Amino acid sequence: MPEKSTVAVTGVTGALGSRIAAQLSDRGVPQLLVGRDPARITELPGAQVRGPAAYDDSEAMREALRDASTLVLISSHPTGRRLEEHASAVRAGIEAGVRRVLYVSLVGSTGPDAPYRNARDHWMTERYLAGSGLRHTIFRAGLYGSTIAALADSELAVRGPGGDGKVAWVTHDDIAAVIATVAADEDNTEHDGEILQITGPESLTIDAATKQVAAATGRNYHYVPQTLDEAFAWRWKHGISGEQIDSWLSWYQTVASGRLDFTTDVVKRITGRPAKPISEAGWWPSPKTAW
Ligand SMILES: NC(=O)c1ccc[n+]([C@@H]2O[C@H](COP(=O)([O-])OP(=O)(O)OC[C@H]3O[C@@H](n4cnc5c(N)ncnc54)[C@H](OP(=O)(O)O)[C@@H]3O)[C@@H](O)[C@H]2O)c1
């Protein structure tokens, strides 16, 4: 059992994990930076680079998590095997002596029948953690405002059946700030067993959010609402696979349903400062990176 707190952060080659790691480094928290490709991990003061470790490689994960007391587990890319991957990473953590897991889930992960396809295995991972006996906190991240830029096509059009549904889009920085704050204070048990829903400051339709992205970037991002039939037909025409269509159309349909039309005070309550509007995201992925 490790004696002092050391936070292992996975997914550090990605947008969220890298921000959590940077914020922990700024706070002087000892940490392990875990990734599948250590050559792509940015070194940070007070941090050790660990890996290569993929979630489903139990032995490599066990070795990478050696000496960690808290594990920040960034959810994997959707592969159809996410629960198995997450469970494998958690088991490796237990075997390595981890005392607490902070898991990055998603808003709307309310059950096995969650309308957004990618939310379903988040919910199962949440249940897995609840039964693990470990100290754990679930962070249900709001939808990233930056995804709007990634979903745009080469004409900067965001096309889909999102209707007028509203979402409290959130920035990576705010999600990272909440998680880093909780990760840095292992002795505080206040958030054990909690589900913290991290949202931005206001609910906006895709149309309104896209206008904010356009204003922030000075680029002509625009929303083109589609019916479900139009959305399918347009994607088939562009050679997008059935699974990808199901994933993204279920994202738009979840937005349209209004289920994500809520804000929380989690950013303010945990970090002490208000959540940023998406116009201050400061980072916009290239178009067509989340098609
Ligand atoms: N809230 C939202 O709106 C939203 C939107 C999109 C995704 N997400 C979820 O949130 C997660 C984090 O978001 P992000 O923006 O940081 O995504 P990202 O930039 O794609 O980063 C994902 C990170 O997870 C790592 N990873 C993925 N699968 C893995 C596996 N099987 N084993 C080990 N590492 C693995 C990746 O490693 P490599 O560099 O080796 O690939 C990468 O470092 C995503 O992975 C996804 O599950 C949420």
UniProtKB/TrEMBL annotation:
Residues 11-185 form the NAD(P)-binding domain. It comes from the Bacteria. Pfam families: NAD_binding_10. This is Butenolide phosphate reductase ScbC. It comes from Saccharopolyspora halophila. The gene is scbC.
